[in-house]
Specification:
The chain starts with about 25 loop residues before the first helix and ends in a 13-residue tail after the last helix. It has a seven-stranded parallel beta sheet. The protein is globular. It has helices at about 30-40, 55-65, 90-100, 120-130, 145-150, 175-185, 200-205, 210-215, 220-230, 245-250, 260-270, and strands at about 45, 75-80, 105-110, 135-140, 160-165, 190, 235. It has eleven helices and seven strands.
């Protein structure tokens, strides 16, 4: 379960998020440098959305990737639900391409489910593929029920991913959504993998189980949170970094392999729910 670049090489195993990036002129150049540093260390999957800064994150990506080999990158963007129909989706996709200064995106996602029928959105996504504007499409913030509804739509099984909030302190997808996707070889993109937007973040970083694993591997607690997700089959975390050194640190998490004992300790400290829970979103 991998994302494959135009050059035929796999993307990942850790990607780069861009939520809130590109919005401050004072940090724009540093954030561009962080993205490039991430690419240089193997994080060639870059995720964004037209919602992020109303296009400012896409503009920042366009600046950051100049001079890089486009075919070795894997660019992901997302369309607002209210734009995911025939009236707007083609224009919105073209606007995203213009801001990112590219001819195509590798993966285009429906940001969350909305009022426009899935049949219409899927038909439009397939047309975007046929036009060469996108290579693949998928969804974001879909629980198992909505993934099943999507699969029932003509060409709905073409969805290449489901991007959801997933981290050590938010494991609800492990009850039914993650097994469903794994059975169908559909990779998961895990946003906020270090609980960047959640109140649990400090508790996670200060957890004895997390800190013990970090000490054993000469790593940071944040790297342990990423390595926990990387231990799950078909999960690609997409942490955000606004500084080059943080991007390099995120990439290094892919080299950490947690032992069964360490995974068990993390599981005991932050157990997965034993019943269906509502999908966490930010």
């Amino acid at each position: 379960m991998q994302f494959i670049t135009q050059s035929g090489a796999p993307a990942g195993p850790v990607g780069q998020g861009t939520w809130y990036l590109g919005e401050n002129p004072d940090t724009f150049d540093r954030e561009c440098a962080a993205l490039r540093a991430g690419v240089e260390t193997g994080m060639n999957l870059i995720d964004t959305a037209e919602m992020y800064g109303e296009g400012l994150a896409e503009t920042m990506i366009g600046a950051a990737i100049q001079g890089l080999d486009r075919e070795k990158l894997y660019l992901v963007s997302k369309v607002y639900p209210h734009n995911a129909g025939r009236d707007n989706i083609f224009r919105c996709c073209e606007n995203s391409l213009r801001r990112m200064r590219t001819d195509y995106v590798d993966l285009y996602l429906l940001h969350w489910r909305g009022a426009i029928p899935l049949t219409e959105t899927v038909t439009c996504m397939e047309e975007l593929k046929s036009r060469g504007l996108i290579r693949a499409w998928g969804v974001s913030n879909f629980d198992r029920e909505w993934m099943e509804k999507l699969a029932a739509v003509e060409n709905g099984t073409h969805a290449a991913t489901d991007q959801v909030l997933y981290h050590l302190g938010s494991r609800g997808i492990e009850y039914d959504l993650l097994p469903y996707l794994q059975e169908r070889e559909i990779p998961v993109m895990a946003y906020c993998p270090m609980a960047q937007a959640g109140q649990l973040r400090q508790g996670l970083l200060e957890s004895e189980a997390v800190r013990s694993a970090a000490a054993a591997h000469g790593a940071t607690p944040s790297q342990i949170l990423l390595s926990f997700l990387l231990s799950r089959r078909g999960v690609i975390p997409i942490p955000r970094a606004s500084r080059p050194e943080h991007a390099v640190e995120n990439a290094a998490a892919a080299r950490i392999h947690l032992s069964p004992e360490e995974l068990s300790a993390l599981d005991q400290a932050f157990p997965a729910p034993q019943k269906k829970t509502r999908l966490d979103v930010v």
